[in-house]
Structures are given as structure tokens and as C-alpha cells.
């Protein structure tokens, strides 16, 4: 088991990528704190883990709220004793309009969840990882954090910000044996892309816009996150790993 004895927090743990990763981490021996703003799907992830004999708790958390992040970390520590891995994964898309038509409120909402949420996770988890003698942080960026696309200005900017926060934190905390990496998924089959699937004109194009000519599964992303969280990635930090079927190359 690749994460035996480790404790991990996964934000957005009720969603597609978060749930697959939570289940995968638990299978590899980790104790998992599933954090999500949505209790129903978050509790379901915990149920699925426990059903297979794994250890998990759900902590309802809004990643934009520092008090809730602090409470998440405290609850995780008091339940499992320490913290070794943080998967900063909660995120939202923005409605697809030109930036001049995007409301300030929506800009703020997307930046708050996708970028400030990652900052707060790092801010409050790092002291605990230092106490644990080191650890791993994985942040969820996106193919759209590496490549511009029309009509998703807030999403593009938030996910590009995650790439730089990742590099920044890797430099600040490497000396404490903390590795900080990001993943950049392409189009992955989760609820966040449901609106694209409804678009009969665009979907055939979007769903084949990579070298492998198909969309990815949440489990394929979870495999990459597991690798970055595990000791197999012991000399990898500050990097952003594309999990996009060749979408960036396309
Ligand atoms: N699916 C894709 O094609 C794709 C591609 C690139 C990047 N991503 C990123 O992957 C991550 C996971 O997304 P997903 O595809 O699993 O979609 P998803 O919608 O299934 O999961 C997102 C999760 O984040 C949670 N969340 C939203 N706001 C929150 C908040 N304020 N506090 C805590 N939790 C909150 C949601 O409840 C949901 O469970 C996101 O950061 C997303 O931007 C997804």
C-alpha cells in the first residue's frame, strides 16, 4: 500500500475527481478527510470508502472561508492524529461569456473558490505538514491554466494562478521536506462538464480535442494524484503534471 500510515485531506471530495482520488487514497491505506461544500455528495464518498473497509470522515467545508479551513485541519488532526497530504481540488467553472460580459460577482466567486481556496489550504496546512516532518500538496489546475480559451476568463486566470502558487509554495517549503505539485486535467468525465455534453454542436469537437481523441475518467486523474502524493514522486516538486490525453499538445 502506497499511502499506509498517511492522513490526507481532499477538498471537493464529493465531486468526480475528488471522490475517485479519495477512494484510491483509502485503498492505498490513507485515512481520508473528505471536505466539500455539499454534504450529500461528500458523505456519499465517505460511505463508499467505509463500505470497502477504508477510514474516512466528512467535514463540510467552504474552501473560501479561512475559519472553515482551520476547522477542517483541526478536525482531521484530532480524528487521525496528523496531516501528511493535502489535495486542494475544489473548483468551479464560469458561465461562458466574454470577459466584458462577465459580472464582477462571478469573477470574484471563481477566483475565490479556485485560487484563494488553494492559497488558504496551503496557508493552514503547511504548519501541520512541517510538524509531521514533511508531506505533499497537490493542487488542481487545468489544461485551461496552461492554455487560453475564449469565454472562460476567470477560470483561465484562476487555474494559471494555481500553477504559480504551486511553484511558489514548492520553493518556500521544500526545505521542510514538503513537495508541492499541480495537476492539469483536460476534459474529464465529471459533473463540471455536463453543460458541454448537452451542446450537440460543440461536444463532438471538445470531446476529441486531444491526441487520444477521447475524454478522460476521474480514475485516470486519481492515478496521477496518487503518484504525486506517494514517495514514488520523492524528487518531484514545483511541477504541473498534465493529465489531458495530449490536450496541451493538440
Ligand atoms: N472535469 C474536468 O474536465 C476538469 C478539467 C480540468 C480541471 N478540473 C478541475 O478539477 C477539480 C475537480 O472538479 P471535477 O471535475 O471533479 O468537478 P465536480 O464539479 O464533480 O467537483 C468539484 C467539487 O468541488 C466542490 N466545491 C465547489 N465549491 C466549493 C467550495 N466553495 N468549497 C468546497 N467545495 C466546493 C463541489 O461541491 C464539487 O464536489 C476542479 O478544480 C476543476 O476545476 C476539472
Full CATH superfamily name: NAD(P)-binding Rossmann-like Domain
Fraction in beta strands: 15-25%
Q: How large is the count of helical segments? A: 8
CATH topology: Rossmann fold
Number of structural domains: 1
Main sheet properties: 7 strands, parallel
Mean of the pLDDT scores? 98
Q: Biggest sheet: strands side by side, in what order? A: 3-2-1-4-5-6-7
Give the terminus-to-terminus CA distance: 35 Å
Unique bound compounds: nicotinamide-adenine-dinucleotide
Shape: globular
**Order of helix and strand elements from N to C terminus:** EHEHEHEHEHEHHHE
Low-confidence spans: none
- CATH architect. name: 3-Layer(aba) Sandwich
Describe this structure in words.
This protein has 250 residues and is of the alpha/beta class. The chain has eight helices and seven strands; from the N terminus they run E-H-E-H-E-H-E-H-E-H-E-H-H-H-E. It has a single domain, classed as NAD(P)-binding Rossmann-like Domain (Rossmann fold, 3-Layer(aba) Sandwich). Helix 1 runs parallel beside helix 2 (39-51), helix 1 crosses helix 8 and helix 4 runs parallel beside helix 5. It has helices at 16-27, 39-51, 66-80, 104-131, 153-173, 194-197, 203-206, 218-229, and strands at residues 7-11, 31-36, 55-60, 85-88, 135-140, 178-185, 240-243. Strands 3-2-1-4-5-6-7 form a seven-stranded parallel sheet, with helices on both faces. The structure holds nicotinamide-adenine-dinucleotide. Residues 11-12, 14-18, 36-38, 41, 61-64, 89-92, 113, 140, 142, 185, 187-188, 190-193 line the site of nicotinamide-adenine-dinucleotide.
